[in-house]
Amino acid sequence: MPKVAVLGGSFDPPSLHHRTLAALLRQTFDEVIVIPYGARSDHRTVSDTPPEYRAAMADLAFRGISGVDVELFSLEEQSEPLTSEIERRFASRGELSYVVPMEFVRGGHACSIRSSWERGEWLWANGSFVILRQGHEPLAEELPAHHTILQVGPYLPASAIRGRIYNQETVEEWLTPEVCRYVIRHGLYRSLPPRTETMFRVDHPRVKLYYDEANADSRQLAKDFNINECDPDLIVVLGGDGTMLRAIRKHWRDRCPFYGLNTGHLGFLLNDRETRFWEQELKLYQLPLLWAEAVTVDGKTVTGHAFNEVWVERATGQTAWVKLSINGVCRIERLVCDGALVSTSAGSTSYAKAMGATPLPFNTPVLTIVGSNVLTPMGWRPAVLPIHTEVEMTTLDTDKRPLMGYMDGVPLGRVSSVKVRVSRTAAVELAFQTEHDPVAKLARLQFPLG
Question: What is the 3 state secondary structure string of the chain?
Answer without folding.
Answer: CCEEEEEEECCCCCCHHHHHHHHHHHCCCCEEEEEECCCCCCCHHHHCCCHHHHHHHHHHHHCCCCCEEECCHHHHHCCCCCHHHHHHHHHHHCEEEEEEEHHHCHHHCHHHHHHHCCCHHHHHHHCEEEEEECCCCCCHHHCCCEEEEEECCCCCCHHHHHHHHHCCCCCCCCCCHHHHHHHHHHCCCCCCCCCCEEEECCCCCCEEEEECCCCHHHHHHHCCCCECCCCCCEEEEEECHHHHHHHHHHHHHHCCCEEEEECCCCCCCCECCCCCHHHCCEEEEEEEEEEEEEEECCCCEEEEEECCEEEEEECCCCCEEEEEEECCEEEEEEEEECEEEEECCHHHHCHHHHCCCCCCCCCCCEEEEEEECCCECCCCCCEEEECCCCEEEEECCCCCCCEEEEECCEEEEEEEEEEEEEEEEEEEEEEEEHHHCHHHHHHHHHCCCC
